[in-house]
Amino acid sequence: MAFEIDIEPDENKLKHLNEIRRLGIDPYGHKFDRTNSISEIIRNFDEIIGKNVTVAGRIIGRRNHGKLEFMDLADQDGQMQLFINEAELNGQSLDILHLLDIGDIIGVSGEVIRTKTNEKSISVKKIEILSKSLLNLPSRWFGIEDVEKRYRKRHLDFIMNYESRQKILMSSEVINSVRETLNKNKFMDIPVPLLQYVAGGGNATPFKTHFNALHRDFYLKIASELHLKRLLVGGFERVYDISKSFRNEGVDTRHNPEFIELEVYQAYGDLNDMIALTEEIVRNAVYAVNGKHKVKFDKDELDFEKFSIIPMDEAVKKEVGDLNEDKLIKLAKGIDKSVVSYGDALNTLFEEKVQKKLIQPTFITKYPIEVSPLAKKMEDDPRFVYRFEMFVEGIELANAFTELNDPLDQVERFKNEEKRKKRGIKETQEFDEEFVESLFYGMPPTGGMGMGLERLAMIATNSKSIREVIPFPQLREENG
Asked: Predicted confidence band at 66 (pLDDT cuts at 50, 70, 90)?
């Protein structure tokens, strides 16, 4: 069967392509040296006006006035008007000008000026074609009515929608900020396997694959936790991993099956160290993209100078009143019939009645032991563990423990997870013998924290959907 593609180039653009080639010009150029980005010129306009610059970008607008022509040129993070007087172009540049179309990528050199209408512009003296576009760009309303189309044709979304492009650039700044904060605090970035033979370290359904060379099934990583803890056993003291995790579960405005996760562990630390580190990470990331700590999210103003700390039982008591065990279990069974214990009931009621109301940055502490198999018991009340989850706008941003380092207790916790699984509770931890064996050699007291970085980017960039901060989110089949 012959190879076929269903792509039909625009006839006029194809004609221009062939004419450029007949001039002996390669319409798909090689390296092009720029003196400035467009945003640099706009930002430093008063210092640069009157000077010659060389820039490159895509033509996204064009207006012809006889021998004068105006183009809108866009690069990664800026847009600027080109002022073109045909009389000031040399022969080759003039030939190229007549063969340009909207969508083409060009390089230009010229003087930075203000036009008579006070528009910041470049008066072009030289033009080079760098990449000839053969398909017409959509209208500037692309994706307004059909948001799904924007995600399917993300390359077009980024061309046509400056805001979409900015969300991704700012998300990158968020991740850079997180790394800078961790590196400044002397944590080491050590990668862990993405292919793992036990789907451990998190309560989630994994993606499964087969490793042909090893004749063995593996799982895509759902968490980095157990491998990073084994590093602590091996003598490393401050470690982190920022990489993709995969959870074969639902997709909504806050969940994507493939996501960027930070996990960080500090030997000889505890939950209080993780609270301080999490505050610093989040505060710095918000500031990195906004230049301030008070930011808008939808209709709310969020203040990242202030973080509240509330124990879970107090938060639930405020909503339901009495914390009587029988009453709590009865209330929780109305939400989830598998609930049989006080801890499961408390957690279920928290998720149902409290979480969505946590708008400002809030640490919820004192989690039940039933839902925290890898966290250390509280000394004054062993029904609970040293754990927090941090919430903003009802979204869970971070999850942290004083880590369980007692190997015998950890074995009992995994046994309890098996019992919970048999009762029909879906969110349980898989037993990892290699990890448990490592604990028997001794792991130092440890504080650990995990954070979904796309969720942090959502908050920092005022994005209502996690898909806005993911360059290529997973989608259903178009006709599925």
From this structure: confident
C-alpha R_g of the chain? 28
Q: What is the pLDDT of residues 339-349, one digit of tens each?
A: 889 999 999 99
Residue ranges and CATH numbers for the domains of the chain are 11-131 (2.40.50.140), 160-307+361-469 (3.30.930.10)
Residues 158-182 have a mean pLDDT of: 97
Say whether pLDDT at 282 is over 90: yes
DSSP H helical ranges for 243-401: 271-290, 312-320, 325-333, 342-349
Rounded Cα distance, 462 and 308, in Å: 21
**433 known ligand binder:** no
Structure tokens that stand for 181 in this block:
């904060």
How far apart are the C-alpha atoms of 277 and 347, rounded to whole Å?
25
Structure tokens at 121: 């512009």
At residue 269, what is the residue type?
Answer: G
| pTM of the predicted model as reported, rounded to 2 decimal places | 0.93
Q: Tally the residues of the chain.
A: 480
Position 420 scores a pLDDT of 81
Higher pLDDT, 282 or 64: 282
49 to 64, 114, 115, 262, 311: CA distances (angstroms)? 24, 8, 11, 44, 58
With vertex at residue 155, the alpha carbon angle to CA 153 and CA 157, rounded to the nearest 5 degrees, is 70
- Cβ neighbours for 12, distance < 8 A, ≥ 6 positions apart: 101
Record the tokens describing residue 351, joined without a space.
């998720």
Output b/e per residue, 176-194; b: 16+ Cβ within 10 A.
Answer: ebbbebbeebebeeeebee
User: What is the Cβ-side half-sphere exposure of residue 375, based on CA atoms within 13 angstroms?
Assistant: 29
Sequential DSSP letters for 222-265 = S-SHHHHHHHHHTT--EEEEEEEEE--S--BTTB-SEEEEEEEE
pLDDT digits (tens, 9 = 90+) for 195-253: 999 988 888 899 999 999 999 999 999 999 999 999 999 999 999 999 999 999 989 99
* Token pair belonging to 309: 């700390």
Strand order in the sheet with 384-392: 188-189, 238-246, 258-267, 446-452, 395-402, 384-392, 362-368, 308-311
**What count of Cα atoms within 13 Å lies in the side-chain half-sphere of residue 167?**
25
pLDDT digits (tens, 9 = 90+) for 101-128: 999 999 999 999 999 999 999 999 999 9
Judge whether 389 is annotated as a binding position: yes
CA 18 centroid distance within chain: 42
Indicate if the pLDDT at residue 1 is higher than 60.
no
- The single residue listed with the structure tokens 């692309």 is 142
